[in-house]
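Structure ticket #2291
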Amino acid sequence: MARSKELGIKALAAVHFYVNELDRFRRFWVDQLDFAFVAASTDEQQAQTGMRTEVYEAGRARYVVSQSVDPSSEAGRWMVRHPDGVGELIFEVDDVQTTYRVLESRGAAMVNEVASIESGGGTWSSFSIATAFGDTLFTFVQNNGFSDPVPYASRFGTPKGGSNRFRFDEIDHVTSNFLTLQPLVLWCKEVMGFEEYWGIEFHTRDYAQKVGHTGSGLRSAVMWDPHSGVKFANNEPLQPYFFKSQIYTFVEDNHGPGVQHTALTIEDIVGTVGAMRQKGVEFMPTPGTYYDMLPERLEADAIEIEEDMDILRKREILVDGEGPGKYLLQIFAKDFAQLFDNPNGGPFFLEIIQRKGDRGFGGGNFRALFESIERNQVQTGRV
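Resolution: structure written out below.
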């Protein structure tokens, strides 16, 4: 039996943000991306948790957002140390007691014991552990017919707004940045029982010389739970110019390591990116040289795509793939600090991805994203 299977993880159930201003997050998820606003904390729940919480859903993707109303709350303690960011990842498991025993036996730092809450004839049983993902906690939940998406937000009878017009499906993976990767990799293996899925390293010195700066590099290791398919892409800066790396800059902006982005799968990225832009979503720009070189790169990898190259160029969508008949399309939104025009918005951003047979991470696009972030950081004076 795979060691990860012992935990019984079924899925990444939710990503939980702690934020300074909840309303601007609602505008992003609901007004711009057309997520449904499905739940909110009651006055009683806010008094119990010290947080005002809302929940947004599209397909199987769920984002929970909490703003502190009490400085001693989880969100309040987070905001003392960080800008807006991901403070908790919530996983649904088969048997929460088994998950607890396995993690405890592997030396996990348990935050609390299993506790159960009843609502609507169902039960939510959960516990949390501290992690190697900075201050981000992992919470494990066994949901037996619990009526609300989380215990601290009550589901509306009818969702408010949002029809998922862009056809988002699920959270494909979570990407995090660190100053050193090996402790994280060892923790994922020894405590979580995850396995290595993919990796890459590169440096942008050759590209950087063309635009007048030093460039930087990264090393990435993707860890995964083969039982559930949950994937974590993890990055560290690569020398030389360690302190100029955009990975290092993220850690500075986030005031520590943490989640850089989550990737949302989508049914038709080409047909919907334009509509997202019309709703005010801003994406990281892709230079024309990327598309000048793309046909040669696709031919070298024997990848044939169905999409029109001119349309991809116009909409600045990236393409990568594993080989014949297998490729992916993706695009990256600007980080929340830029989208909200507020440094407290934090360096987190959203990836949108359409997989067409490719289950990997696109080595070519990994570098294209890195260069795009780097260009943006140079333009804004952050490196």
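Closing remark: The mean pLDDT is 92.
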